[in-house]
Amino acid sequence: MTVHGNGLHAFGEQPLPPWRRAVLKVGSSLLAADDGGLTDRFAADLARFVADCRAQGREVVIVSSGAVAAGRGLLHTDAAGLTQRQALAALGQAPMIALWQRLSDVPVAQVLLSHDDVRNRRRYLNARATLRELLRLGALPVVNENDTVAVDELKLGDNDNLAAVVAALVDAEVLLIATDIAGLYSGHPLRDPHARPVPRVDAITAETHRMAAGDAGAIGTGGMRTKLEAASKAAAAGIGTALFCGRDADTVAALSRGTLHGTWIAAHGDRLLARKLWMRHAPAGLHGVEVDAGAAQALGVRGASLLPGGVVEVKGEFGRGDLVEVRLAGDATARVLARGLVQYNATDLRRIVGRHSRDIESILGYRYAESVIHRDDLVVLPQEDAA
Q1: Which GO terms describe its molecular function (predicted)?
Q2: Binding-site residues for ATP, please?
Q3: DSSP track, 291-360
């Protein structure tokens, strides 16, 4: 389904909320060439938007479809079986990444994820740490579903939902979904003469899903239905979603100025509230770490991450990604200062207690992160909660 051009004017304009980090999902219909393979016809404008954002001090992670289309272009085949599509995805990954690298003035990093990578806590933290480090290094992460092995996800064609997961993974403030339609309409815009643009959705309901009835066309494997599913997941994580036409250069350029011509699907609640509430109230038992006064002040006053240099002692046994408690060493009241998700298991953490972050790799032979608990994975407890 392709509706663009006058969609810009039909949807008018509305301001995007301020954001520092975004996930941009680009569908196959924006990358696939008419004669097979990939084209930069629309991707060039999207890449220019990403470059403009970077110049403004913002960070963007791309979730890109197109690998299967690229594989089809290499072999000139219309094969559609599951195993065939998996093989085409493997063949198409390289040209898909090459397309984004050609359009980017910074290094492009390929990150392949499956839903298992976010279900498993250890792999979730690995993916989270890798994406954060790539952004810190100034690279452009391009994420795709690991279609070669992700059987169920490939059948669902769920890069829309994967984009919502990635948005939560990197603590993005906004999810931007570029598609070949101007936004959400009250009905199918090519079949319903009474269909009208829906510029804003405050809550996704059964009626909202009825508006999205229809297929994804010959190339895409999702459609408006999966985009609403993704927006619903993002909203639950406190992340708003913008649906817009990635084929309209003016619409894409307007995003750089903070203006949306499309549909805004509002978030509800605080972006980090659910995770913070869980960390605050979940029972963490007796496992945890004791820290010195300097680290305690850095956590409580400056909102800093917990570094190994501030850790005095490790209590109990725990694995990477477990919820642990942070206490002040020598405090007779054993008051809990904070709770958080730890980046190293108890055995490895004991080896780096009191050491500088730069020494982690030389001691352990690897380094997941420079912090023991990253500030985004840590909640400082008020005194009345910590007693």
Answers
A1: ATP binding; glutamate 5-kinase activity; RNA binding
A2: 25, 179-180, 221-227
A3: E-HHHHHHHHTS-PPBPGGGEEEEES---TT-EEEEEETT-TT--EEEEEE-SS-HHHHHHHTT--GGGH
